[in-house]
Amino acid sequence: MVLIKLDPQAEMKGTDGAQAVGSSAVLHRHLSEDFLVLSKSEGNYLILEDGRRVFDASGGAAVSCIGYRNKRVADAAYRQILDAPYCSTVFYTTKVQEELCRFLVDSTGGQMARAYIVNSGSEAMEAAIKLARQYFIEVKPSQPQRTRFISRRQSYHGITLGALAMGGHMYRREKFEPLLMKNVSQVSPCNESRFKAPTKTNEEYVAELAQELDEEFRKVGPETVCAFVAEPIVGAAQGCVPSVPGYFKAMKAVCDKYGALLIFDEVMCGMGRSGTLHAWQQEGVVPDIQTIGKALGGGYQPIAGLLANHKVIDGIAKGSSVFVHGHTYQGHPACCAAALEVQRIIQEESLVANVASMGRLLSQGLKRRIGNHPNVADIRGRGLFWGIEFVSDKKSSTPFPEEIHVAMVISKLGLDPKYGINVYPGAGSADGRLGDHIIISPAFNIQKEDVEWIVETVGRLVDDYFATLQV
Ligand code: PMP
């Protein structure tokens, strides 16, 4: 296979192969690259410093949900900054935090008892891990030996050390191994197109995965397991992969059998992104703890959180009654005000219903336009959360070599004015079995014309990129 030069970092490399250092003062992830400068964003467009206008078809990292430059949200945050910009939540709460948590708890139809507000998805996951641990320390008879977690390979739960240990996104985690948190083991993810044997029915596949989880519990000692942790729709690590019907019911049954908690990470797929406010509402399963992020604040402020059910909250209330956790900026009033306004807009404009209907059009359109493309292995997702997986050979499902960064280059090519589209790239997994993918996760308020434009533009992008690869 001859590859034409489309290495996103090629121009940054020195003649001796060493990486040149970019001119930015910011400690970026890629030190060698000078990043594009975003000067403005409005509606669903990003406006770059060089004048380029780019349609944000991934809402950043599946964050933007009502578009940018919403004056109502800006005013709400501004008013709150003037009224009470900061609140030390050790001593006080604020009306706006109370209102946001009430909204979140009520949105679960009584399933969840309390909400906890932090500033990022990783913090939310750290809080979830500690809340689950503390629950077992508090409940009587005391079960303090429950210190282990079981999660899934090819998952992502955040970048801080605890959350990283929980995840299976090898590119983001392997450099830091051995991780500080050693009491996590992992089982297989549920990915029908990649890992289900073609001869197996969905029921057989679910039974096989439930059996694997059951065996993992028995292997590590069921009385030592605190919780099973999973994303209802796997985001960054696989590219919008929902599970097959019945999977989470079967996994929860295993957790129940051994008395462990179920934690859902809905940081990326939650708060309306999947076509229901909570992704678990499509699974017929309610977690004990759920984390949320991204679409909670739609990008207007850094905000994330967790919801815990009555069992967990009552357990802690009957114990020490203190969740031994906290951050200086948790429950930040301006963040809460912005998120509350975002959620009000989503409700008033029935945007979750729009996610479901536009999502149907998007998936049909993408499948029609590029479903038969020889390098498109799979198009999957829910709501406005769709992943397109690329392979070099469709029959054998062989991924492209990692070093040509297929998804990264496609995403970068999308910014060319010929296309003017922002899509979110994801690398193939380090275990070599998943292909690269891009994520399409636009704002919840997109209309039919936007969907048609996205489908056609992604189609052209994929056609043009692969036409430059000479085999
Ligand atoms: N969990 C999931 C499922 C995520 O997708 C992410 C972020 N991509 C996180 C946790 C971490 O969130 P943050 O980047 O806000 O810390």
From TrEMBL:
InterPro entries named in the record: Aminotrans_3 (IPR005814), PyrdxlP-dep_Trfase (IPR015424), PyrdxlP-dep_Trfase_major (IPR015421), PyrdxlP-dep_Trfase_small (IPR015422)
Signal peptide boundaries: none
Highest taxon, organism lineage: Eukaryota
Similarity-based family: Belongs to the class-III pyridoxal-phosphate-dependent aminotransferase family.
Keywords: Aminotransferase, Pyridoxal phosphate, Transferase
Protein name: Aminotransferase
Pfam families: Aminotran_3
